[in-house]
Amino acid sequence: MCGIVGYVGRRQAQEILLSGLSKLEYRGYDSAGVAIYHENVLSIEKTLGRLKGLEDRLDGQPVQGTIGIGHTRWATHGKPSTENAHPHTDCSGDFVVVHNGIIENYLALREELEAKGHRFVSETDTEVVSHLVEDLFTGDLFTTVLAVIQKMRGAFALGVLSKREPDKLIAVRSHSPLVIGLGEGENFLASDIPAILPYTRDVLILDEGEMAVLTQDGVQCYDLQGQPHGKDVFTVTWDAVAAEKDGYEHYMLKEIHEQPRAVSDTLRGRITEDGRRVILPELAWTSEEIKQFDRIHIVACGTSYHAGLVGKVVIEQLARIPVDVEIASEYRYRDPIVSDRTLVMVISQSGETADTLAALRNAQERGNKVLAITNVVGSSVAREANDVIITWAGPEISVASTKAYTTQLIALYLFSVYLAQAKGTIQGEALATIVQALLELPQKLSEVLDTAPKIEEIAKAFSSWDDAFFLGRGLDYSVALEGALKYKEISYIHAEAYPSGELKHGTLALIVDDVPVVALLTQDALYEKSISNIKEVKARGAHVVAIAWAGDEETQKSVDRVLYVPKTLSFLAPIVLVVPLQLLAYYASVARGNDVDKPRNLAKSVTVE
Ligand code: AGP
Fold first, then answer.
1. Are residues 161 and 216 in the same domain?
2. Span 268-297, mean pLDDT?
3. What is the pLDDT of residues 446-500, one digit of tens each?
4. Which of 33, 414, 533, 601 is a good FRET partner for 236, with 20 to 30 A between their CA atoms?
5. For a substitution probing ligand 1, which of 401, 406, 595 has the most ligand atoms within 8 Å of its CB?
6. Nearest CA to ligand 1 atom 10
7. Is residue 433 in a domain?
8. Pocket test for ligand 1, best of 310, 345, 353 (most atoms within 8 A of CB)
9. Measured between alpha carbons, how far is 476 from 587 in angstroms, rounded to an integer?
10. Are 159 and 261 within one domain?
């Protein structure tokens, strides 16, 4: 997830571009750049690190010009570096591009272009676009960009500027957001509304598959076949701060609702076009290498550890490799029994958690190959691991981890299938069924999010209690652990997850009249046992809310209320099951008047022991 801005008008572009980028840093901040045209010169300035570095550079040496584009980066392809920062240009320097998204077929396109003599200077997928524009330039920028995007596959929001036609900006939206601000004798382009709010509240929100040509005198929208059409102007009523949260009250709620997009992005480019197999281009592992692994250790902290618990069940079920899941702060001080056939996996949203990083280093010192799953390209974990699977959740601002968890699960599902394919433990229609079920998850997540009002109602009732219990068996227990962590870390209510079958060995003593209990019921093979455990707590007066599959008509008979989630494969249940728990925690925290995004005593990344 990156931030794009563009300006064309009568004012100096530099200040407007930098102001816009400052409002989009929440979308990415590992590098930034601008390209501004003035009297046949297209100046490009880019810096590694936060936007402030670029601002300082340009304060010292301002760039003249009344038309330009800018970008703040959240790296997906190519580490954070000045060379990989946007804008990207072509061999001639006549065309510059900024991009948000993922171009799935960039490697094939790059090979074609290099074979024609194009010279690339970055590792990014984006640079392919600027060379394609140069390669296909017909003398008309608009029709050239039309031809370019026909060759591209993936998610892209583009801003294009050329010395050849320096009075216009071309904007393209395909699976990544883009809005246009309408001014008097000036027009604006941005990934999100906050960037243009200081200048105008009148916007055109580009829909999926739309393009636009911006000049200082006006804006014309088109479909991706080049057919022009009109668009209604949307007048923004939000203030700037609310706009950064996309109109949501807190970043956490925004990030919960981003999960369909984040899951879709993390799947993107990792499933074959026929939708039948998983590919992980970032792992150049051979089947022989994969077959030599006889054990996997997954090491992480907090929510990432809970994702690892799900990974254990799925890897063992699909790839039949034994997996141990370890808390990093414990594992790093143990002398674990490993061999050179043990694969160590570390999971970390930030890629900077001290205990997880230490566990990674210890594992490498013992000679183990380390695979990382992280959300931050260029983080310490990403740089030091032997191989990395990046989750494409985009920056996660709220301390409580939500979209990072669901995208970590996606990475673990993809990796499990990748292992199973290599080992032949899953193939044919069984494999295709799993892959299809993965592709359906973004839609199922959207359906779960529609139940938010019901969950808010339950959370308000639960929030008056100082205790809550989350019960489950098998994978439901792994998700119950995540639900309890979410709940306690932002509502400050003591919450405990427990294996349903273990209650009678002690914890049942804590069950009293009306105490809130959340029971998870998606593991079909364990349903009857789970229901009998629920009856144990009901018999002692608990107030039980169950989360079960849509269409389940049995559960309501045994509990006070049922929240339904759309059916999917049992081992994919955690992806849909966790969302009601995230929302329950969120609304309980709001009901208690807490600082949801910055809960007391906690930090977003625990970079100290
Ligand atoms: C998640 O809600 C917590 N804020 C916390 O447990 C977090 O998951 C943990 O600190 C690990 O962080 P990491 O994924 O960045 O390594």
1. yes
2. 95
3. 999 999 999 999 999 999 999 999 999 999 999 999 999 999 999 999 999 999 9
4. 33
5. 401
6. 302
7. yes
8. 353
9. 22
10. no
